[in-house]
Amino acid sequence: MMDLNELTAREEIRQLLAAYTWAGDRGRIEELADLFCVHGVLDVGPFGGRWEGRSAIITGLRAVVNRSSASVPYGANPSPVRHHVSSILITDVGGGRARVRSYFAVHTAVGLDHWGRYFDEVSLELGHWRFAQRMVVVDGASDRSLMVPSP
Question: What domain count does the chain have?
Fold first, then answer.
């Protein structure tokens, strides 16, 4: 049976995942980077690699945004991006750390753009849950994806 501290931690971790999604979908890169530990890692695989530290995450995500914007036809408005996260499994909660696994589906102007899984390690840092490491695994993408580079 979970105690109140674990239940509170689990809800705060769910809030962390939601804050990441909302910041990313609105292009608030600095806000998104602040959700990582000071030396946190974002591993985006096919999007551009592995970035360690908030400034590297900001630089890497800006490159992704620029690349994605370049795929929008000249004169067209950038596509809205909507991440949908589900089947959130939080395990090994204790000592200010936890593991999180979830699925995602991303919709853009092309419809279902790409989908996959998140593998997260989260930590309590200065009283706030943050990502120590987030690994993005893309399981598939539309052949018209605006976000996943063509092979």
Answer: 1
Name beta bridge partners: 107: 82, 112
Sequence-separated (6 or more) residues with CB below 8 Å from residue 73: none
CATH number at residue 124: 3.10.450.50
Residue range of the domain that includes 77: 4-141
Per-residue pLDDT of the chain (151 residues; tens, 9 = 90+): 889 999 999 999 999 999 999 999 998 999 999 999 999 999 998 667 899 999 999 999 988 777 766 655 544 455 789 999 999 999 999 999 999 999 999 999 899 999 999 999 999 999 999 999 999 999 999 998 888 877 6
